[in-house]
């Protein structure tokens, strides 16, 4: 009898949890759905009362306007180059630094680590002017490298990798590898790297999405439309006197698709990394 009551309570609680998660998911997905609806309608539907909730028939026309206004596919390609390059470099630097800070001993390790963490609290806008002057003097304006270089060192990524390596890689395994004659880089490549792959997925998604949404720095250093990233290109659609919301949201909708693809490709590793951390 007690077992039946416990089963019933567990069943009711589980149903309630799923209902709650379903409602939260619908609230989270609604802005994306509304963006899609607006991208399929005329600009006048943006301010209509009651608001339009059913997709229209203007998706192709609105997107064609985007293609006529900006080099959309070139901007998407530029953004993919920037995001992939920054993500790969950040993963490499952060994992190496995290391994060094967690498992190696060298003078000033703690001071250097806290100095890197301290940069997180500094607003990036404070360094905008001196960074722009450095990039301009180096002749890198309108160059995609200028849009990447500031993001290669990621303090949050170093912190996450340090915590993950310290908890996931046993010290005994490192010592055994040293006794076998492995170099530091061989230990990183053969032992540490395979263990921290789930953390790679988590950090990779975070970095990729954050760089994809970056606007201020890219808008500052990229002035040639051929070098625009997608965020800068979409901003140029917002003219001073008139905004075609159907066209603008159509561009935003198609620019969001690669982010969804990245998450769907790596969500299993992302979830496994979170689950592994919660178990630990």
TrEMBL record:
Its main location: membrane. Keywords: Cell membrane, Membrane, Transmembrane, Transmembrane helix, Transport. Pfam families: BPD_transp_1 (PF00528). Residues 76-266 form the ABC transmembrane type-1 domain. It is a multi-pass membrane protein. GO terms for biological process: transmembrane transport. It is found in: Cell membrane. GO terms for cellular component: plasma membrane. The chain crosses the membrane at residues 12-36, 76-99, 111-132, 144-161, 191-212, 245-266. InterPro entries: MetI-like, MetI-like_sf. The keyword Transmembrane helix applies. Belongs to the binding-protein-dependent transport system permease family. This is Carbohydrate ABC transporter membrane protein 2, CUT1 family. It comes from Psychrobacillus psychrotolerans. The lineage of its organism: Bacteria, Bacillati, Bacillota, Bacilli, Bacillales.
